[in-house]
Amino acid sequence: xxxxxxxxxxxxxxxxxxxxxxxxxxxxxxxxxxxxxxxxxxxxxxxxxxxxxxxxxxxxxxxxxxxxxxxxxxxxxxxxxxxxxxxxxxxxxxxxxxxxxxxxxxxxxxxxxxxxxxxxxxxxxxxxxxxxxxxxxxxxxxxxxxxxxxxxxxxxxxxxxxxxxxxxxxxxxxxxxxxxxxxxxxxxxxxxxxxxxxxxxxxxxxx
Length: 207
Known about the structure:
By secondary structure, the protein is of the alpha+beta class. The chain has one domain (7-202): Collagenase (Catalytic Domain) (3-Layer(aba) Sandwich), CATH 3.40.390. Helix content is 47%, strand content 13%. The protein contains 7 helices and 6 strands, in the order E-H-H-E-E-E-E-E-H-H-H-H-H. A 3-stranded antiparallel β-sheet has the order 1-3-4, with no helix packed on it. Helix 4 (114-134) crosses helix 5 (144-165). The model is unreliable at 1-23 (pLDDT under 50).
């Protein structure tokens, strides 16, 4: 998921929304999940820092990881994320990968297990950071076809990283996991996403 504009961490429950009984909906992730997403984030950043062909390396290296637990929130432009947000996301300004507790906890239910699922999802959001900082992201990704093309380009970028940081066997497992996911209009057909991932694993992605 790619978002826009400015970001700031807030510690107010007001933007989280209230449940039926007036209670704020909040979640906390386990230390193990926090350690895993942090480790995957560091692997990805270190990989991209070594790619001399990538422009804007300094900006990629300055990308931050924010884990949302309890009543912590993160504002990205007009979008606000809480510990109850459903997916990992990327905010380009400032360049930040957002990891809500709910999304981290959901990794326990994936077919490939939390570590590999986190490797893919964290890598995907870092892929947005790479394309954003390189200036290669599709300028107008608001239309369905353009958005799908951008998401598939990001998956190709993920493949470049995972082939080095995780290897072929993990890539195959992640590809199967991606293929079995519920397809949506944002990311496009799963088969194309897997094809993009494997293309990145085999060599450079197309410009």
